[in-house]
Amino acid sequence: MTLASSQRRYLGLMFFAAWIALRAGLLGAATTQLRVAAFYVPGIGHFLHVDLSWLAFAAAIALLLRSDPSEMAIRVCLAAMTAAQAASHATANLQRYYSANALAWDLANFVQPMWRAAHGASMSATWSGDQPLWGDHGSFVFFLFAPLTRVGSDPATWLIVVQSVLTAAFAPSLYFLARRLDFDCVTSLTVSAAITSSRALANAAAFDFHPECALPVLLTLSCWFHFSSRAHMFALTVLLAAGLKDGAAMVVAMTAAWLGLRPWRTQTMLVASCAAAIACFDVLILPRLSGWPSYLRMNSSAEVDYLTAMNSTIGRAVSQGGLGWLHPISWFGGAPWALAAGLSPKLAVKGIAFQYGFLWVPVGALGTLFALRWLPASMRKQSAVAWAILTIAVNAPLELSDDLLLHHAEFTQLR
After folding, report:
1. 106 and 350 Cβ atoms separated by less than 8 Å
2. Does residue 97 register a pLDDT over 70?
3. Suppose 7 and one of 3, 92, 142, 368 were both cysteines; which one would form an S-S bond, judging by CB atoms 3.0 to 4.6 Å apart?
4. pLDDT (tens digit, 9 = 90+) per residue, 386-405?
5. Is 198 in a helix, a strand, or coil?
6. pTM score, two decimals?
């Protein structure tokens, strides 16, 4: 039976509504266990970075491909997707916080100094000998987040909400970047949906407070400003991203350098140099000034397990970046983490899998867009949909082998 164009459109939008319902289904979940059961196939889905709720969206896109949806309809879908992701992240994190499962490290240790600074005291951590909070990892943006601790009766609630919104804002920023690069609206929405459904990104947004959750939206916006020839806003977003954390500074510096090299742009290279200088300051000088431990010395002191490092680097790269890792910008921007995994199996086991791994996601997104640009315009829609579905199929065995090896390495270290 052949469906009319209007029937395909309505059926596609119905599938998309189902996808939104699955994403927003977390609002009715009482525990994290219910959330996992609702989003992942038991035994296999746990290892996917792109959750299986995206399959409904893939069906919608497959139908919409032939019905030529309007730009307005796509933007409505984008807004619904963004709102569902923000609600999903915020609900998971607040449920964790209000049920007393949040940790002192990565929530209380950040909230208390920011609350002090918002009330006129120094941004020092009393639990660590009054060391300045910004001295740990070079997270200078804590000063921008500090006023949120004065909103409402609880100092942590709005930090969590704003973190969730910033993480979800990655989807529209990626969509509009794709449109700026002359992709059609369906391809742009397909790529943004697949990339922003990353498990690593969702885990980071749902786990206490991490200022680097703003990296995906800031890095994507910086690229949009770059391709729109808005030099001042490009510099502002790059420097804001560099102030999130030492690792974010490394990623944004390398990405900006790539943009400045092809073709050569002196202003862009100057901005990239400033971000690189911030990264070097954070890693090499700041520990001596602030009294915090040197993470470079800490992570490079362990015995190197090359098999674990290689597996972690390649597995995370392919599973989080997908098609993006065919393009050199992904390896260029992800070079700091490839180097980190080689230096330390501890970072490979403890970091790449979770807290640091999601910093690769926006770089993989850029690589995906640039890789798709290699194709003729007539092939991009079908290629984007095929890539998204293939990403889901390929992620399962990659994540399974990767996690098993990392768990073995972690057990060996603990023993």
Report:
1. no
2. yes
3. 3
4. 777 666 555 544 555 545 55
5. strand
6. 0.83
Straight-line distance from the first to the last Cα atom of the chain, in angstroms, rounded to the nearest whole number: 62
Q: The tokens 């497959």 sit on which residue?
A: 62
| Cα–Cα–Cα angle for 28, 32, 36, rounded to 5 degrees | 90
What is the residue type of 400? Answer: L
List CB contacts of 132: < 8 A, sequence separation 6 or more.
113, 122, 123, 124, 125, 290
Q: Does residue 52 carry a pLDDT above 60?
A: no
**CA 340 – CA 348 distance, rounded (Å):** 8
- Of 290, 274, 292, 298, the C-alpha closest to 351 is 298
Q: What is the pLDDT of residue 313?
A: 61
pLDDT of residue 162: 96
Instruction: Report DSSP state, residue 355.
Output: I
Nearest to 227 by CA among 187, 265, 172, 186: 265
Dihedral of the CA atoms 21, 37, 210, 340 (nearest 10)? -120
Helix, strand and coil content of the chain, in percent to the nearest 5, comes to: 80, 0, 20
C-alpha distances (whole Å) from 97 to each of 32, 149, 208 are 12, 15, 7
Distance in angstroms (rounded) separating the CA atoms of residues 238 and 259: 12
The residue type found at 267 is: Q
For residue 155, the model assigns a pLDDT of 93
Phi, psi of 198 (to 5 degrees): -60, 130
String of b and e for 233-246 (b: at least 16 CB within 10 Å)?
ebbbbbbbbbbbbb
* pLDDT tens per residue, range 187-206: 888 888 877 777 677 778 88
Rounded to whole angstroms, the Cα distance separating 19 from 16 reads 5
- What is the enclosing helix (H) or strand (E) of 375? none
